[in-house]
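Researcher: Re-running this chain for the archive, since the previous output was lost when a drive failed. Same request as before.
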Amino acid sequence: MAVRRLSAVVMVVVMVVLVGGGSGYPAEDLVVRLPGQPYVDFKQYAGYVDLDLRTGKSFFYYFVEADNDADHKPLTLWLNGGPGCSSIGGGAFTELGPFFPLGDGRGLRKNTQSWNKASNLLFVESPAGVGWSYSNTTSDYTTNDAQTAWDMYTFFLNWYKKFPSFVSRELFLTGESYAGHYIPQLAVALLNHNEQSTDFKFNIKGMAGMFGSCSFCCDYVILNSHDGNETDRWQTQELFAGGADEAFNHIFKGCGRVFCLKYTLSFFFQGVRPGPAHDCG
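Model: Regenerated structure tokens:
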């Protein structure tokens, strides 16, 4: 699998200059400029997070700072589904990331609707075998949803070691398609951690996405914390408010009340108050 790892480095980092990173971020993962990329002020990072040194399992990530005031913006995870779809080739460079390929494939253009206008973005290739994520142990390529959730939980623990300033940052879990399984099961894993941890707790503020399997979908989901304060709202093609009963009940318990809203907004995190909500739970 050394070839796969080298290929990722060649494709994503070769032809860019790597220099020291700021804010305690990993200098070795800093991508100053992608090939054909227009100038931007925000930083980008890409690299590997080791999950299991014994089996040689590592996940590839691409992290993009928010376009402005990144130190005070939340962190949003995005996962594509499939199973087997690349979150980088799909989500990052054809959907919600800061750049889209030019028509001739020889450069990049800015995505004027990039989600990094509102949040720091984290794209992860998951599970092992997707994109540039790999394992040196063949059996790791036979996986299931529970293992994928555990791997992403482990990924977060180790990614936070690279980016410690995000440990307490507000976290949104998002995705599409088969991520309708990934996201709620990951949320359960993180909430289980929060229930048992005497150390840090994941600051989960919401989850959203166009999901392929849910009890019901609606345009907006608001997750209310137990103190009754509304968290941020999200818009995409459909937002998850259900999924497997066990996962949903756990999320409901951990986050408080869940509301569906039929409303349309142009941007995220703007504090706009949509119309009357009806309780989905």
